[in-house]
Amino acid sequence: MRAAVLHEIGQEKLEVLDDIETVGFGPGKVKIRVRATGLCHSDISAMNGVLPQPAPFIPGHEGAGEIVDVGDGVSGLSQGDRVLLCWLPACGVCPACKRGQTQLCLAGFMNAGTPNFQRPGGDVFGFAGTGTFTEEVVVDAGCAVPIPDDVPFDIAALIGCGVTTGLGAAINTADVAAGSSVAVIGCGGVGISAIQGARLKGAAEIVAVDPVASRREAALRFGATEAVSPDELADAKQRITAGEGFDYVFEVVGKSVTARTAYETTRRGGTLCVVGAGAMDDHLQLNMFELFFDEKRILPSMYGGGDVLTSYERAIALWRAGRIDLASMITHRVQLAEINEALDQMRTGTSLRTCIEI
User: Fold this and answer.
1) Is the confidence at residue 267, as pLDDT, over 80?
2) What is the DSSP string of 303-355?
3) Cys-Cys link to 64, which of 22, 157, 196, 208 (CB 3.0-4.6 A)?
4) For residue 327, which of 208, 210, 199, 158 has the smallest C-alpha distance?
């Protein structure tokens, strides 16, 4: 079986091998034939060590495909079912799940330390317990979420992570108010989804901030009212808010320097929503006086800040109704053998989302 493998953390390129086998199939598990998977920036963050992940591993966590086998004890799923992969399934019984915060369930993270592939040289892990840059993957049944027949695999893959994360940040976590002003710092796939979410919620002003011109141009097509480079953000703040700051600012980069900029760009009493996944040793500094005096709400948003199954259904309904544009978010398509081209497209910012067709 073919798969793209990172042998050591810090390497920039993946090696496409054909000697990979899935392991772990049995009770409570399903085997999925991956048909499409998106490249998310979190995959690169795991490759370079920003996000913790044992190696060697197969990146990819934003995928969709067909079930080819079902283990004992699995109900509601059958061979041939079309599914998207949920990299953070809810166990339903932990304290977070019982509180209704299923996006904070840690059960899925436990899978990241268990290899679900092997090759002659030894065990191979799947990123975030999945690993979708491969032809087949074995996961817990809870990771396989059925999708309607009218949802293409590439669209379903996007909903599996980036779209759910960005939309949910605006709709669930920040709960953007109609008529408000919004700034989104970082306009890749997740940032574009946050822009679409803010537009759905009725924001009057949506300023997209990104250093890449093509991403700024794309943001305007997806609902931003203005798009600026980082150097132009201060001027936009002055012009649009009379210097007060935006009602909502979304940080979708995952770095302390942009989070600090986002804090300073948020008005007093406004909301800073942290969406980007950053490194454990990258610290955001705030002094105790400004924290008290500014009364800004700082809201981290994990996987869209709400029940992911509900978020999937909402995204599908909005896509069907033409309220969100998902197809146009896929700016590039490659085959698995061309995976390193997709990585280059992500690193240079030339893509919003690259779909790897398997």
Assistant:
1) yes
2) TTSS-HHHHHHHHHHHHHTTSS--GGGEEEEEEGGGHHHHHHHHHHT--SEEE
3) 157
4) 158
* Residues paired with 185 in a beta bridge: 209, 251
* Residue 25 burial (10 A CB sphere; 0-12, 13-18, 19+): middle
Map tokens 């920003």 to a residue.
50
Give the pLDDT confidence score for residue 107 in this predicted structure: 81
pLDDT tens-place string over residues 191-210:
999 999 999 999 999 999 99
Distance CA 248, CA 174 (A): 8
268's tokens: 């007093």
Q: Is the dihedral of CA 120, 35, 55, 30 positive or negative?
A: negative
Residue 307 tokens read as: 């029940």
202: which 2 tokens? 């009725």
What stretches of 152-280 show up as alpha helix (H) in DSSP?
Answer: 153-159, 162-168, 189-200, 213-221, 233-241, 256-265
Where does residue 31 rank: exposed (0-12), middle (13-18), buried (19+ CB within 10 A)? Answer: buried
Q: What is the pTM of this model?
A: 0.96
| Residues 6+ away with beta carbon under 8 Å from 86 | 108, 142, 143, 144, 145, 160, 308, 309, 312
